[in-house]
Amino acid sequence: MSDTNTIIASSKGRKRRSWTFTIGTIIVGLHIAIGLLTLVWTPYDPAAMSGGRLEAVSLLHLAGTDRLGRDLFSLIMIGSRIALTVGTGAIVIGGLIGMTIGLLAAFASKTLDDVLAAGLDILIAFPTLLLAMLIVAASDGASLQTAIVAIGVANSAIVARLTRILTKRVLSMDYITASRISGTSCIGVIRIHILPNIWPTLLVNLALQFGLAVIAEASLSYLGLGAPPPNASWGRLLQEAQATVYTAPIGAIAPGIALVSLVIGINLLADGLRDLADPTRRSRR
Predict the structure, then answer these.
(1) pLDDT tens across 85-102, in order?
(2) 216 and 153 Cβ atoms separated by less than 8 Å
(3) What is the DSSP letter of 53?
(4) pTM confidence score
(5) For residue 283, what pLDDT band results from cuts at 50, 70 and 90?
(6) Per the CB 3.0–4.6 Å rule, which of 61, 94, 132, 240 could disulfide with 152?
């Protein structure tokens, strides 16, 4: 009886995890489709006044218009493309920098490893948004490219620390010692043994970092440090709607829903990737 209950519970768990991954894929895929669609089409020109100021939701304007008379739905569609661009760019930059530093720390001498580990701990102690703000403030000015680099660099410390921990764990295995004795170079050890063993955990972490990058970009834009006009960032739309939130709340609600839906979709997708990348974790649940 106990074995039967275990099998039933395991089946329900796999079904739930399957739905989690599916829902996450659908939500993120929808945002990707919308972002790609904006490259060739939007309901209205996002920079043109296509209606009256602060119009309500209608068949002509599915999310109403903003205080300048621009179609809010078109602006939110553009916001999907910007969010995905920033998230992708940030995890590529943060992943490359973080993995490089983490691998160097794992292979370095004990003294250098301790120095790098202490430096990473200090960077991680600072909030990602604060580090990104400092990097943007130190640059020539706010731009989409600056926001991508700033968020990527700020997130790289987390990736570096995780890479260092995972790599040192793999390096402690007996087969690594045997591989080194047989003459395998450090690059060969990384390519043959390290990366195949650490990529599942890193993949999940990078997926979560993607969601954090989207939130960080919206926060920077809300503070005026993100992508400048005419880029329709969700954070900037929220900032612009702040003055009319009581008279036209849809201006704040619509981009807020878009932002929350993308982050939730990414988190659900990351949870599904965690199970796909680590079969032993699925069997333990």
Answers:
(1) 999 999 999 999 999 999
(2) no
(3) T
(4) 0.86
(5) very low
(6) 94
